[in-house]
Design goal:
With about 400 residues, the protein is mainly beta. It is built from no helices and 23 strands. Helix content is about 0%, strand content about 60%. The strands form 2 sheets. It has a 21-stranded antiparallel β-sheet that branches. It has a two-stranded antiparallel ribbon with strand order 21-22. A hairpin with a 5-residue loop joins strand 3 and strand 4.
Length: about 400
């Protein structure tokens, strides 16, 4: 249930999961989550507050006494106050914040705190300038901008090694992460910081319509102190590095329907390309969509898995056939070993109130090991086992039915 107003947003949620893979780890259920957010923009100082209470539970009979077996309550109070100063040539936004967390935990390791309580102050200054020029290219009147941006962030270092990992994660960095308050997701880990993020963006726009034709951004973080709060570190991540990788992103609108986008991450210390993507999207309305994407991740940063390789291409589409009927399909291909991760093709019927799909799908299954007996060349007449690990593919027919227009409206 949710309530949304001008100043208050309230929410109450019960969430549980059914694992389709019996070997997968149990996920935390939220029984319940209650959140309340309040804001005040009436004065020059903008105020934001958020309160969240969650009881995290899961089947932990075999996990009691370990970090992954911890269950319990978490209450969070997140307060922010900012003074945004804006003009057409730039902006300056100082912000102070306070994140207070209180836990009441059960079934965790004996050496961990059962009722930790932590208050973490934050401070940031976000500032930037906007330069622009107008020029003519052929018959087109264009506007180009140059937008340098500086983001200083300080977050206090608090001891968090014995906190649970209810909803914490360590997402991959990107250009937008240069200007984030917390480098982790969730509230179980608040990353300490004393750093400066520098970025620059340039846009090319139509002067008459304001439509953005080209956008390019590049930036990097300069660390003024080592990072002490470490959680689920990724391969190649160095908490003592003085700088982050260089992140770049670009997008080009070749027409109203046809767009190209790309991202790139480069590590200057090792002169390595960490990650890169390039994508093409054609969209002529809601039901005429064609996507083509290529993703590269350095093997030094990512271990390949059943559904994830170092180099992948992904093609997907939806296209009208007759009235409300459309053809849909996808082909996800891994170039590391030249295998299809997933592919499907089918039909979709989409009406105002309901939608249904019927697809034929082919996908990789979990690896299996086959034991073969062969003659022992060193001992004639004796057999020795050999192990052959394969990743077979499976096929299936899938049907989906979805109600779209079921709602309750009060006037």
């Amino acid at each position: 249930m949710q309530y949304r107003g001008d100043a208050w947003n309230l929410g109450l949620k019960l969430q549980g999961f059914q694992n389709l893979n019996p070997k997968a780890a149990e996920q935390y259920e939220r029984l319940p989550t209650f959140n309340a957010a309040w804001k005040d923009d009436s004065g020059p100082i903008k105020l934001r507050s958020k309160f969240e209470y969650t009881y995290f539970d899961k089947e932990n009979t075999k996990l009691v006494g370990t970090r992954s077996g911890t269950i319990g309550e978490r209450a969070v109070l997140d307060l922010k106050a900012s003074l945004p100063l804006k003009s057409e040539w730039g902006f300056l936004t100082p912000r102070v914040g306070l994140i207070h967390r209180k836990y009441n935990l059960d079934d965790g390791p004996a050496s961990f705190r059962s009722s930790p309580e932590i208050t973490t102050p934050t401070f940031s200054v976000d500032t930037g300038l906007i330069f622009d020029r107008f020029f003519k290219l052929g018959d087109n009147n264009l506007q180009q901008t140059l937008e340098p941006r500086l983001f200083y962030l300080y977050v206090e270092n608090d001891e968090q090694d014995d906190l649970p990992a209810f909803d914490a994660s360590n997402p991959s960095q990107s250009y937008s992460s240069l200007f984030r308050i917390n480098r982790f997701s969730g509230y179980d880990r608040i990353g300490d910081a004393n750093q400066v993020g520098l970025g620059i963006t340039s846009r090319l726009m139509s002067e008459s319509t304001g439509a953005q034709l080209v956008k390019f951004s590049v930036g990097q973080i300069f660390y003024l102190a080592d990072r002490e709060v470490i959680f689920s570190p990724k391969r190649g991540e160095n908490p003592t590095a003085e700088t982050s990788p260089i992140f770049a992103t670009a997008s080009i609108a070749l027409s109203n329907q046809f767009k190209l986008s790309t991202t790139y991450e480069w590590e200057p210390d090792t002169s390595n390309s960490n990650r890169g993507t390039i994508g093409m999207k054609y969209a002529a309305g809601q039901r005429k969509i064609f996507n083509l994407n290529y993703v590269y991740t350095s093997p030094e940063l990512q271990r390949t898995s059943l559904t994830q390789g170092s180099e992948e291409s992904d093609i997907s589409f939806i296209w009208p056939i007759y009235k409300n009927w459309s053809a849909i399909g996808r082909w996800n291909f891994r170039w590391d070993d030249h295998r299809t991760i997933e592919s499907f093709v089918g039909l979709e019927y989409n009406d105002c109130c309901w939608k249904t799909r019927l697809v034929a799908r082919r996908f990789l299954k979990s690896p299996t090991t086959t034991i073969n007996l062969i003659d022992d060349p060193g001992n004639p007449g004796n057999l020795i086992p050999t192990f052959d690990k394969t990743t077979p593919a499976d096929t299936g027919i899938f049907f989906e039915f979805q109600l779209k227009g079921l709602s309750l409206i009060h006037i």
